[in-house]
Structure formats: structure tokens, C-alpha cells
DNA sequence: ATCTATTGTATCAAAATGATACAATAATGC
DNA sequence: GCATTATTGTATCATTTTGATACAATAGAT
């Protein structure tokens, strides 16, 4: 569900002010977490992005690490805050730490402009090394939540991304590359689908991840040979052709 | 060459004192870099480790990131400081950031004991998130260099590692797993060998990385089919059997 | 009843992999 | 010298995997 959630200007400014006052006491300085949340709907691979304030720019869902919190726990917490999901498939794939993370200064200036004053905390101005995770979610179960400086939560087609801040475009591409590598090896695909699915849906998912067409009959043969699919009753979908079987992912049958 | 370099107690204490005085001004707090340096000799895969002070514990070569330095540049600098090599094959593979990075407190206590006093800087006591890289080097060209708190630089067989501090054992195993994945895909193996090598040497390298025996004839067929090996003159090695060819790695012939 | 689009399965060729055989070579021992 | 031994380079065959195509079954549209 491409739920869109817009918050008011006043609430936005207030949220930022509050964050800046408490952040240095709560979080590690210098290290952040960014997550590339993948979803799949309408046969397309999607990424969840946040609109940065009232600007036309988007960013990856991210956050900071509490001073007494494990890195992986931080990633999970940030993800849960944003999607309200439990049991999320999460993989760390890259850490971004170049000084010039593209247009970072633009972002900081925008942040300042948004709250209409120079904050006494220099939190955003400091250098961050960002540890990046990707997550695979069943988008039908996601309930996107906005917070602090973000005015909108939106799914974007991986091939139709908006303008993003920092080096987040680079991070998204690296996430996709890693997902491609993990899809077969870790049977990761099924985290992007619902409980049941047709073979065609599964194929469209693979095609959208690998960004290329696959041969239907050979794909079907390969998936069935994995031995992890349980075949359920046929799905009569009202289309004018043979009805497909439904499948369920059944690890270690 | 398993060069061993031992420095004096006085020089050691002095090095630590000096480091602690200047570190907070020079380096980012909270973020460190660790490198798993792989080498290959006597048909074994090796890892370069540093002896921590006068203790029996070893650690990975690591360091900190200068305030105005890119993350990748920091990894390269740390590696060059330790090996005096240029053009090193380097891959970032993991970032370790759990609060309880195993026996960290032991290490800190040891560090304090070594310099015989509580340092005014709490540098070592702070929490670090460590970005980990692995490097592939031709060990015949490495000139291991000791520094600061380390009293010895030594190559260890991947299967005969000493006791290591922090979570460095975990990091080494993760590095090996990643190397296994990269070996074929990125033709990474040749960075571990000298300019020329025999097919058997190459096979022993693959076997030591994958930790399993390979069938000689099929391995040879596969390597030759890659199209990246240039066959040179035979190597008369004085052994009582047919002399093998030498090969050179020739990318994009 | 026929047409159309899609699904499930079968089949054949081509490529990759696994297993084995064997001739060539270079020192060793007689 | 000459057979012996260990290793190397290549060939060959069977098996498995992959790519490409054919075709019957189905379910609604006409």
C-alpha cells in the first residue's frame, strides 16, 4: 500500500527542535544507520523513501545508534519504527564513509532553513559514517510511519527513483546488487511475497530483481527443483485461461 | 616471509602514551577500521596478526579514521603502514558494532596495565563500531611493520589461529566466507600469488580458500577455460617427474 | 462450438561438470 | 642405459544442468 502521510509545518519544526536538543545525549556521534527497504507490488520492485521536510528530495529511512545499543538492534529498531513490522528480513551490506557523501551540505542547509534558525546543536553538521542494511518486507503488511523531519513516506519503483540526498542513490544501487546475489543463495525472495503466490508472481519478482526476462518454463522447473515450494489448490482468478496453482514457501519440508 | 619484529618495553610504553595524547584531536571517535590481510605460502592460506603488547593475545591490524579522511582511504593507509605495499586488493565486507564485542574489557585492562598507569585519555574505553576490510597480498612483497602497542607481526595459518582479542575471530571467519564468494566472481585469487605460478600452486590456493580438495584435471580445465591465464615456458624444477608450465595472470588478453 | 491466452509438463539439444584413462616427462635406482 | 616412479597435460565418457521448443489442458470470450 503506497500510503502517504503528510504532517504539518509546525509539527515538523517542533519535531526537529526536540530531536536536536536530546540527540547528543542519546546517540553515538559519527555513526548512523540507513536502510533500503524493498517491497514488491504490481510486478515491480519498490523502495521505501522519506520526503525530507518540505523539499522535493527523498532519503532512505535511517537513524542513529543508541549509546548502549547493538548495531543490528539499532537497524531493527529503525526499521520497526518506520514499518511497524516484526520479524523483518535484514542484511547488512555496506558501510558508507567518504567525506564527500555527495550533496550532504545541501541537506544540512535545507534542514536549517526548515526550522528557520541555526540550531545550537551541530548534530547534522558533523561527519557520519553510515552502516547500511537492506530489508525485505511483504508490503501488504507495512504501515509506513512518518516522524521528525519527514513529511511523506512513499514506495518508489526501483527504476523510477526521485532525487535523493546524500549518497543514497549509490547505496540503493549497492543494495540491489547485493539482493541479486542473495536471492538464490539465501532464498531471500519469499520475504517479499505474501503467504501464497503463483508461479508467475514469483517469476515477475525474480525478473524485477535481476532486471531481465526469464524463460517461463525453465524458471518453473528450477523453482520446483529447489524443493521449498508447497503446492496448494488452484487459484480460479476469473481470467480467460487455465487457472494457476498457488504455492506456499515451505522451508525444509 | 614470516618476519618477526620485536620492540622494547620502553619504546612500547612511550608509543602508547604518545598515541593517547594526540588521538582525540586527529581521529574520528567511535569508528575504527580492522583489516584481515590474507597471504598464501607453503600451500596454506595465512592471516597477518599483531601481538598485543607483551600479552599472548593477537589482534587484526587496524586503526582509526582521520577526521578529514575517506573511509576507504583510511583502510588503505592502515594497510600500507603495516605492509609497505602499494596497489593492494582491498574489499570492505562487514561492520561490527555490537556493544559486547566479546572480551573487549580484557583488552582495555591489558592496555592500561602495559603502560603502568591509568591514562588521562579514555580513548580505548569508548565504544567502537569497526568497519572491516579484507586484503589480498603477495606475501613475498610484504614487509611487516610494527608500531605503537604491538610487539610482533606474524603470519598465521587460517586453521591455526592464536587467541585473538575482541571479536576478531568472528571477523576473520566472516572475511574467509566473503573471500570464498569473491574468489571466482572477481578473480581475486591471483592477488595472492606472485607474478608467475604453476597450476598446482593455483589449485592449492583454491583448496585452502574453499577448505576442500578439488579434482586436479577438472580444476585445470576450468582455470584454462577462464581465458585469463597466459602460459609461459615450462618450469624445470629438478623434481623427478614431468615439469609443469608456468602461468601468468593476464586479464583481458 | 470455436477462439484465445495462459499454464503445466515433456522433450531434445547444448553446455557444464564429474570421473577416469592414458601418454609424456624428468629424475631415481639398478 | 633402462625400467621405475611421481606428476603433468590432455582426452574421453557419463551425468547433470541449462536453454529452447513443442504441446496438451484449461477457462473464459466470442
From TrEMBL, chains A, B:
Gene3D superfamilies: Nucleoside Triphosphate Pyrophosphohydrolase, Winged helix-like DNA-binding domain superfamily/Winged helix DNA-binding domain. Residues 28-180 form the Nudix hydrolase domain. InterPro entries: NUDIX_hydrolase-like_dom_sf, NUDIX_hydrolase_dom, WH-like_DNA-bd_sf, WH_DNA-bd_sf, WHD_NrtR. Pfam families: NUDIX (PF00293), WHD_NrtR (PF21906). It comes from the Bacteria. This is NUDIX domain-containing protein. It comes from Limnovirga soli. The lineage of its organism: Bacteria, Pseudomonadati, Bacteroidota, Chitinophagia, Chitinophagales.
